[in-house]
Amino acid sequence: MLGCTHGTLFKTTVAGGSYQEGLSINIQGCPPGYLFTEEEIYVELMLRKPGQGELTSPRREADVPIIYSGVNAADTMPGFKNKGYTNGTPLVILIPNVDRHFEHIEQYQLTNRTPRPGHASYASYQKYGEFDDSIGAGFFSGRYTSSIVAAGTIAKRILKDHGIEVVSFIREAAGIRMGDMPIGEIKKKAAAYREVRKQYDPIYLELFASDKLKSGMRFFEKAAILADLEKRIPEIKKPVYDEEEIKARFGINPKLFCPDAELADKMHDEIVRIMKEGDSSGGLVEVVVTGVPAGMGEPVFNKLDGELGRLMAIGTVKAVEVGCGMEAANMTGSQCNDAMRIKDGKVVFDSNNAGGITGGLTTGQDIVARVAVKPTPTIAKPQHTVDKVSLEDKDLAAVTRRDPTIVARMWPVVEAQTALIILDAYMQHVAYQSMKPVR
């Protein structure tokens, strides 16, 4: 399968499927000297995984990563303290699947001849024929996005070391849209949301808060812990939380990450209302990148806003806009232009309709982009479809596990993939700038 690699200097290749043994991430270009842990990666993975509540599929994937290679197995010399640190070779991360029970596979087998409208199952069958991995939608399942989040965790840490931060959030869900909020406040809410999820995530408490799974363990030791976890997942209780207490203490809504906690309630209620009608809903995810230098990017075919268009590579994303985006069509030049002036010897802008990018190059402002997330294709309403083998008309009603909306799980994926795009562009920018003549 082609098309599973992204990047020039920071290159990420992903593999795996919804009901295969798991997923893998191979990162080339990760600098030496970084200490990453499974706990750090899991904190990001737990934000997108299913089984979180009534807004997600009931599939209870643990999503526990295992750092497999690319780090030193021991201190390499007397006096060196580099065990576990990246060594410059490809960094490989595994995410085993632990919730793939036969009764669910049988449900897919019984319905795989009749593709779900809006899903990739018809097109993928045309491409791969009878060998198409259609159990749980295979590589076209949202399950694969865990690999993007894992890789993005690595990219975000490297970017942060260079003063660049990426933050994403739900701007709109089920037709309810959030107003403006300062990015500094959004960052605080994002940090609080992660802290709350850590405190109430059963797998985090079971493996990481208890120090049961440690990065220094060998692969077989970690695998044994996950094998035991797989048997006990149905028995592990979810901690009960007081939603109002969390809102008062942290200022966030634990059900979905819209930084406006009260508006998040309205989003949740509307998503549930639509779900009870047997349908699904979509939304908008916004991502903001701060701390980027001016002049980053390449012209013509590799413009940075064009590279951000690669967010369309995320399943369920149907549109990407940068800055004012589609609104530009209804603006005049005087409204759309970002006027500049000098303040304290530096260039400042009166607005950011360009989203921090002009001519494909960064202006030094925050990069702002939004993606449109379509409704979940799997719904509990009858739909017209076909038998893709016999080519007969059929009717389909959903029988598999499903998400009433995908937007609640999509924001960490958008954040991660943006980080991959920005880090790759930043590494090229640093390399290019370093080659200028020394005067």
Provide structural commentary:
With 439 residues, the chain is α+β, with helices and mostly antiparallel strands. The protein has a single domain (5-434), classed as Chorismate synthase, AroC fold (4-Layer Sandwich), CATH 3.60.150. 33% of the residues lie in helices and 18% in strands. The strands form five sheets. Strands 1-2-3-5-4 form a five-stranded antiparallel beta sheet, sandwiched between helices. The longest helix has 28 residues, at 407-434. 41% of the residues are buried.
Strand order of the largest sheet: 1-2-3-5-4
Described by strand count, sense and barrel closure, the largest sheet is: 5 strands, antiparallel
Second CATH tier, the architecture: 4-Layer Sandwich
Compute the separation of the termini in Å: 48 Å
Please give a quick description of this structure.
This protein is an alpha+beta fold. The protein is 33% helix and 18% strand. The protein is globular and about 70 Å long.
Record keyword descriptors for this entry:
single chain; 439 residues; alpha+beta; Chorismate synthase, AroC fold; 5-stranded antiparallel sheet
Which helices and strands, and how do they pair?
Blueprint: E1 5-6, E2 11-16, E3 22-28, H1 38-45, E4 66-69, E5 91-96, H2 102-111, H3 121-128, H4 145-161, E6 165-173, E7 176-177, H5 183-200, H6 202-209, H7 219-232, H8 243-250, H9 261-276, E8 283-290, H10 304-308, E9 317-322, H11 333-336, E10 340-343, E11 346-349, E12 357-358, E13 361-362, E14 367-373, E15 383-387, E16 392-396, H12 407-434
Antiparallel strand pairs: 1-2, 2-3, 3-5, 4-5, 6-7, 6-8, 8-14, 9-14, 10-11, 12-13, 15-16
Helix pairs in contact: 1-4, 4-12
